[in-house]
Amino acid sequence: MATPSRIAVLVPCYNEAATIARVVADFRAALPGATVYVYDNRSTDGTGDIARAAGAVVRREPRPGKGVVVRRMFAEVDADIYVMTDGDATYDASRAPEMVALLIRDDLDLITGIRDDEERTAAYRRGHRLGNRAFNVLLGALFGERPTDMLSGYRVLSRRFVKSFPMEARSFEIETELTVHALELRVPAAEIRTRYFERPEGSSSKLSTYRDGFRILATMARLFRDERPLPFFAGLALLLAAAGLALGTGVIFEFMETGLVPRLPTAVLATGLMLMASLSIACGVILASVARGRREAKRLAYLAAGASRNS
Asked: What is the pLDDT of residue 123?
């Protein structure tokens, strides 16, 4: 007889005293056999004590940032299936059993809860919705597959996915890294649409629209450079070569007509730009081999972690 899967609900949170008890209660009711872990990210409003009283296993992480908290959670918590959610009571816990069952039935590694706010602007601000769509389109253009909601904080993950995830994010860009890791390893994944609720009164978002938006963009650029170095450096080489040609074409024509190079600084600059373009291509070719080796190492770590134990 197969051993039942061990399920861990992971809740990173910072100053969520108004909602954390409800989150713990909802997920304990939806997944009675699961252990709810609340990682208190240096809260000052008693979030940890409230979560402990509600029945969660509480641990404290003093270093700031959601990515830092998730990194520690993935390292410390041992389970077969992980349900990751936020501590603000905006995600629908009642969909968790269906998501877990789908992961087990189809032997998936990642299920993303697609936020459906039913056009309630108070739940999902229009600017955030448009920004998320733009990020989804950009990620699809960079990595070849467009997610529906790459910034969703509601996910169900397998053990082999969690234990093979080389996380670097410090803040809200953690969801971007999760999405790219799944795309690059080509793991079996699915999406499920879930209700997205308004924050209860007394609860406030910790997301900084512009600061965290720039961090997410920077993370996407870094991941594209690291995971797809050849197209990244080829694009850089194209820009450098175009600038070099724009500056050097006139110098070449003048030399052909007069045998002189009257604009020597321009000629030197154009030559330097073309050399940099050549070096950029060479770097892309070399780093593509390095990226392939890293991808193989991550794949081996993924396989070594093993599949979840199906019930």
From this structure: 53
* DSSP state string for 205-231: ----HHHHHHHHHHHHHHHHHHHSHHH
From the list 17, 51, 63, the residue with the least C-alpha distance to 171 is 63
Determine the Cα–Cα distance for residues 249 and 44; give it in Å rounded to an integer.
Answer: 63
33, 54, 153 from 220: Cα distances, Å = 37, 37, 17
Residues of the chain short of pLDDT 70, as ranges, are 1-4, 117-127, 202-206, 307-311
Is-contact 227 180, C-beta < 8 A?
yes
Residue type, 151: L
Class for the domain spanning 7-226: alpha beta
Contact 180, 143 (CB under 8 A): yes
Phi-psi sector, 301: left (phi>0), alpha (psi -120 to 50), beta: alpha
What integer pLDDT is reported at residue 11 of this predicted model? 96
